[in-house]
Design brief:
The protein has 499 residues and is of the alpha+beta class. 36% of the residues lie in helices and 21% in strands.
């Protein structure tokens, strides 16, 4: 029997990655991404960030062509397509389904005043109880900016879409979207399980701008004859899954159930947990969206915490504090003789801009508790990593207040999760088991496509072959030491943050 393959795309702001997964053994056969250097982001004014949607399509085709050539795979061998994408972007297309302007992407901040005004005018209770978030700087607020500042262009809009919706459109010629996508754009009313008419009416948006809604796992559309000719895919190949990058990262790590956490810790850090009941944080310190398996029958929400000062702090310590030329691995060795809690040294890691978890305050980084007679570089190195972990746990407390029982953290073995010190501290403070895996977003999107196409009966079958690289259990013997260190850190944070 010929091999069956699943195709996954991951549309990031730096590149588009494509992966082929053998549907029968679950293994990734080949991956490629374009461009090989970071894709350009247009910044006409300070705080703006735009990309040409055509660039995503061009890079998707280049990535696809490379993996099909390397694997010797033909279009008819690919049985389903999944898409992961950068969240919160806005793509506007006309009646010919052509983009009217560059996409306003996730890191563009021009729409902040439009979201803040809506939150004030409509009221926190209305927004949080229905949207589970402030309208903030999300897709709806970006569209409000276009409506006010580019009225002639706005009048030509036929449909609005997210970056993943646009890639699906180019593959199929069919504009549609998902509840998960609408929720990340602030277009979904969780209380009434429908498009958020009250926000649409507030901004003066016509309901026709919203594309047809399809389930996250389903035959959403099929590859068109035109796209088949451009890509080498077979006409009629189903597109059966799409999700934003953070929900998809959770899917890639087989995080589907309440209490499970997916985490990343690169330059910045993300903790994404699954909640089984509709709830929100009254201070809007975390964002809440529909998870990939959310439905009318089963509440599954993704609660997203972002910490700006993660790997960037560790890199700063390596450059500025640690002995010159030291590696990250050697930094951990340097701390071997420093006890849990760094003998009273604490580092508040919030030195990379305003932090959502601190209600958008920008309190900057500080090092506290230095004693010139006993503390060394090693204490600061350890305290920095502990501070990063403590900031994660501080945000996880918000999730727990929302009703999440955190017992397991899934992560890729990369970035800060390569550090035993970081991993042991996170397990020790949170009390959660950490499981490290070998996967990425495009592979996850391919497996999501397998679920949507019915090739896999559920997520457990789809991810049965997920490579678990390591398991870190909480160190119960030193749990009190970890919790005492965390308590001292929170005291230092509260003093600095004037809580």
């Amino acid at each position: 029997m010929a091999n069956r393959y699943l195709l996954g795309f991951d549309v990031g702001s730096s590149s588009v990655k494509a992966s082929l997964v053998n549907a029968d053994n679950g293994k990734c056969v080949v991956s490629a991404f374009y461009p090989e250097r970071e894709a350009p982001i247009l910044a006409v004014k300070a705080g703006w960030a735009e990309q040409d949607p055509q660039m995503w399509w061009d890079n998707a085709k280049l990535s696809l062509r490379k993996i099909m050539t390397e694997a010797g795979v033909k279009g008819e061998d690919i049985k389903a397509i999944g898409i992961s994408y950068q969240m919160h972007g806005l793509v506007c297309v006309d009646k010919n389904l052509k983009p009217l302007r560059p996409s306003i992407i996730w890191c563009d901040s021009r729409a902040v005043p439009y979201g803040e005004k809506a939150f004030h005018d409509l009221g926190a209770e209305q927004c949080l109880s229905h949207l589970l978030n402030s309208p903030g700087n999300f897709t709806a607020a970006k569209l409000a900016w276009v409506k006010e500042n580019e009225p002639e262009l706005y009048g030509k809009i036929f449909k609005i879409m997210l970056p993943g919706d646009y890639l699906a459109l180019r593959l199929s010629g069919t504009p549609n979207t998902t509840v998960s996508g609408l929720s990340e754009g602030m277009f979904w009313d969780f209380k009434n399980n429908k498009v958020a008419d009250f926000l649409m009416d507030y901004y003066g948006f016509d309901s026709s701008l919203i594309s047809d809604i399809v389930p996250t796992f389903s035959v959403q559309a099929q590859v068109s004859a035109e796209a088949a000719a451009e890509t080498g895919l077979k006409e009629g190949t189903p597109i059966t899954y799409r999700a934003g990058d953070q929900p998809n990262n959770a899917l890639s790590l087989n995080v589907f159930n309440p209490g499970e956490i997916a985490s990343t810790a690169g330059t910045s850090g993300v903790v994404y947990g699954v909640l089984g009941d509709v709830n929100y944080d009254k201070k809007s310190r975390v964002n809440t969206f529909a998870h990939v398996n959310h439905s009318d029958e089963q509440t599954r929400l993704g609660v997203l915490l972002c910490i700006n000062g993660t790997g960037i702090l560790n890199a700063w310590v390596r450059r500025t504090v640690a002995p010159e030329g030291i590696s990250y691995a050697d930094m951990n060795v340097l701390t071997d003789n420093v006890p849990i809690g760094s003998e009273g040294v604490t580092v508040i890691p919030f030195g990379n801009g305003a932090e959502r978890v601190l209600e958008n305050r920008e309190i900057e980084c500080s090092i506290n508790g230095i004693n010139f007679n006993k503390h060394t570089k090693a204490h600061i190195v350890r305290a920095a990593q502990e501070g990063i972990v403590f900031s994660f746990c501080y945000g996880m407390e918000v999730m727990q207040q929302m009703g999440m029982d955190i017992h397991k953290i899934h992560a890729g073995k990369a970035n800060m999760f390569l550090s035993p010190l970081f991993r042991d501290t996170l397990a020790g403070v949170s009390g959660a088991t950490i499981e490290l895996y070998d996967t990425d977003g495009s592979v996850g999107a391919a497996k999501g496509a397998g679920i949507g196409a019915g090739i896999y009966k559920d997520n457990n079958e789809a991810f049965a072959t997920l490579d678990k690289l390591q398991v870190i259990e909480p160190d119960e013997a030193h749990r009190a030491d970890y919790l005492n260190a965390y308590a001292r850190w929170k005291d230092a944070l509260n003093r600095q943050n004037n809580i």
